[in-house]
Request: fold
Amino acid sequence: MNSLRNRFGCFCLRLATLALTVAASEASSDTLSIGSKRFTESYILGEIATQAAQSAGQQAVHRQGLGNTAILFEALKAGSIHIYPDYTGTVARELLKTEATDLESLNRGLQPLGLGVAVKLGFNNTYALALPEATAQARNVTTIGDLARHPDLRLGLSHEFLQRSDGWPGLKQVYRLPHFPRGLDHGLAYEAIAAGQIDAMDIYSTDAKIAKYALRVMTDDKRYFPEYGALFVYRLDVPQRFPEAWAALVTLEGRIDEAAMIAMNAGAELGGRSFATVAADFLAEGATEPRMAAGDGWLVQLFGPDFWRLTAQHLTLVFVSLAAAVFIGVPLGIWAVRRPKAAQPILGTVSVVQTVPSLALLAFLIPLLGTIGTLPALVALFLYSLLPIVRNTHSGLHDISPQLRESARALGLPAGARLRMIELPLAARPILAGVKTSAVINVGTATIAAFIGAGGYGERIVTGLALNDNGVLLAGAVPAAALALLVQALFDRLDRWLISPGLRG
Amino acid sequence: MICLSGVSKSFNGLRALAPTTLSFTPGRTTVVIGPSGCGKTTLLRLMLGLTVADRGSVELGGEPLTPANVDALRHRVGYVIQQGGLFPHLTAGGNVTLMARFLSRSPDDIERRCSELAELTRIPLDLLARYPRELSGGQRQRVALMRALMLDPPALLLDEPLGALDPMTRHALQGDLKQIFEQLRKTVILVTHDMHEAAHFADEIVLMREGSVVQRGPLDDLLARPAEPFVAEFVRAQRADPRLARTAQ
Reply:
């Protein structure tokens, strides 16, 4: 029993050290941190910026595939990232809530926040609506205005487009569109339109798949969509703090035209090449024609060079948050039993936390904690872990028979000793079951940590979704599922070690 | 040894015990008897501080029971209940030695006391390695008695200790218990609703009804000089014992 406790203590200590190391590597102050959003083009531009900075001798990391514009903006303001690629129209409408998209007005609006925009890369990636060429001909649709005459066409729009002020709400008003669109992940919408499950979707004009899926892009005849010129949004202290890197980034100005961007997107999405290779090729010789991948087997993909890093990150996320939830959740459960008046508020609160969608919780935690990455992910997982642990501790202790409770008192055991020697061991089984439930759920939930750059197997899932590449997606989903099974087995073993034989049978 | 002065208790406005003053003779066995709901279990729980009296005071060994000393005083009173009193996650031995280990008694003392008690209660030593669910009902009650006696308390309280046993086991344990009580000469207070048990164990009987003590005295007194008709009625209702049957006519 003692050696078991020691072993457990060692394990906890190692996890804590691991967490600190991960956190420290994020916080290092002389590293340029470059963010990107969760779609192919942003990954590639982020990678180009990172490699350009690195070749200028600057230590730089790419925090890739962060959730959405709001998360990146918070991360930039908090200083968790220093620079990321975005588009003039997005900065104007989403971040500044203005119409003007020229650099001067954007910089005027961003300056009070200590931020700025610079380095127009040379291409425009506007939003547009598209539908299959065949449908377009049959219905005679060439402009967005034509769409209003076909209220039966099913629209599948990305979640961000549905919400953005420069997206669906305004578009619907300007063109008087009567449709009720469905929300879809952008990476999945192409599949859906190819399968005939939706008739029209939002696209970015540099998407590689427009040609592949034979879509017709509708003309924006009322000029609703603003200009979306690609550029960098950066913290104003970047040019002084990282002068060599900044000089290298400035040379990218005007170097990528629309054709080059479409080619690079196609290289990643259709050619199966990694973002890093696409970016490296561009920096070496300008954009190149897409070339098919060498055709790595799936197993090679699964055990790719990032496998152990992702595994370590995933384990850290799961077990550090779980350990914290045990240290807080078990005492909360005990408190709820001791003070029946407190029980309902405590159980109610931890239940309500469960109902908050994970992305919403993360988006809420980032400004609160002032950082992206491991810390908010750990806090979110910790909060989700509480309910099973608190509830099982409460019900486990609550269900101990009154005779046993009273026998312990009648022996003259003080309250603390009763809890330690009698009540907790008697409730050990339900408590352990609660911890197990939390652990298994955590393994799954931890995949969303990739949205805010905390890594783990979710990184592959997010990338797979962005690339619409099931191989990459499975290379993340399969190890996550295997880990869930392992965790389950681990706890079954723990049950045998920790639970008295007198309570089995 | 144990004294109650003016102790009373109500639950949700219902009187469980009228103001009662009682003291128990050291070294003797007193049986508290009465029909269900007469307040006999409440009386026992008050003596252990498991229920706090509305009024009056309880003294154990000359010390008034207070929240501050209740745990220490409980070490001087052994307590056995009808069933379910053993902790299922501990072995029989673990249950017996729990308090001695908590109080950091030396392992040698614990072991010596354990074999002494095993002999006294006729529990084979190897049975102590078993968990309660692996023991019979009678064995469990013997182990519970060992646990109650572990710290060698001057007083022993038993609440229906034979209540959940089958007749054969009950008979055997009844005989052994009587012997143990006589041998140890502790202040024993045993609660039951069974007149045979009372007749078997009691040096003195306290008969209760609706929260009050109706009569107190040796069995012969209750039979010969019932304080009120209820006493005779209660005794007559259980006259299967030849001795009771003869006198109740």
